[in-house]
Structure prediction request, 458 residues.
Amino acid sequence: MHNISKFSDFFYDSNLKKILDKPSGQNNSVLVFDYCGVRDIYSSIDKLAQHLVPYELHFVSTLINRKEWSHLDLLYGNLIKSPPEIWYNPRTQLPAARDGESNKNIPNIDVLIENLKTAVSNGTGLADTNIIRCALDTAYYFSAMAIRVAKPSLVLVWNSFHPLSQIVAAVCKQYGIPIGYLEYGALPGTLSFDFCGQMGESAVVQKSDAFNKLPICKADLTLAEDTLNYFKTTGINRKELPPYRNLSKLVAEKSRGRKVILYAGHNDAASGTFPYTQDTRVHHSPIFKNADEAGRYILSLARNNNWFVLYKPHPLYDRAVELSTGENCLVVSDYNINECIDVADVVATVLSQTSYVALIREKPVVMLGFNHLRHSGAIYQATVIEDVEMQFQSAFAGFELTIKRKMWSDHVARLLKYYLYQHDVYSPDEVPARSLQQLASIIVNTIQENTFEEFKTK
Prediction:
């Protein structure tokens, strides 16, 4: 491997020794990996650890390598610090790569290198290949070491699409360890847990027949409506949003009475659309290879139909391509997403979770790809390029909008009752999703019964 650190340094600095200090009979555990450096999940991870008895939770985090976050700790779980070579951040300089033998065991290494280069460079791909390879190699060896030391019964990974997360998945496959995926939920203030994957690969989509038949009652629908009203009224978002800036006046001046489309871009490197493969076409984006290509096509439709486009790029993938030119488009990178949605007639995206925010704010949504909404019946779904213009026309006309809003309420009711979990930064009164205690029970049942079911109620 790369001679970046002595393996003993990895071991002692990481807190893995704490696991070996315990009697061998106490090594039944759940091992959680976050190589993305997520900042606000520590309290939720710790609450999950509290309820996982008799299983111990070990949490591998890259975030605590950064000085400003090094104070973070867990009360109930065991926090494991990953080597600093794994940590990446597009706003900081990656560690210098050193010479060494490359790992031969990582599958699809060339694809992962290009994916990580894209991820750390805001989509440009301009990153040092040696440094990127160093991060991937280190992630492989450290993940394997953590798994061999902790002997987990189950591994959980934050963000299935991230190339470093895919390294963990590859190691789990080699060791025969079952894996599940954690991420922010589709609704604000929630977390998702899934054995199938995320978004278009999620159980909500892959097992849609079962999910859409899960029983809901009048009380569930009332709770869903109340929750949606709370989301719309408060405008809560997992990211801090800028204040409103009177966008409606600017759009009125620019659009001059034309129909307005808000196009929300996505981060290709973290959404399953880069690189573009057959799996991408099947599960995520059947029409367009990336967010830019979809944006250019929407702009061509806008020119032909005299529509006006607001383009909001993903905040971590902010290239505005040619959409910023001409009188048919306005780039709104720095505007509040809720304000952008409110001034639009229709919201479009390939697979961004902005689709959920738009439906919360009662706007018609045209989907050009797939996320959890694929089989919900709540959106205007295009699956071939010939359908895109027709779906926009239907959305502008409000075709079957009453039916779609009913399907949307049903979808939200099922998400809250059967799929999404409370993020500990919000109270159950604010976001009445499933409790982390329920998630712990499902994880324990999975381990003990060797059954993998996302929609269990107990």
User: Anything to note?
Assistant: The longest strand covers residues 152-158. The chain has 17 helices and 13 strands. Residues 1-5 have pLDDT under 50 and may be disordered.
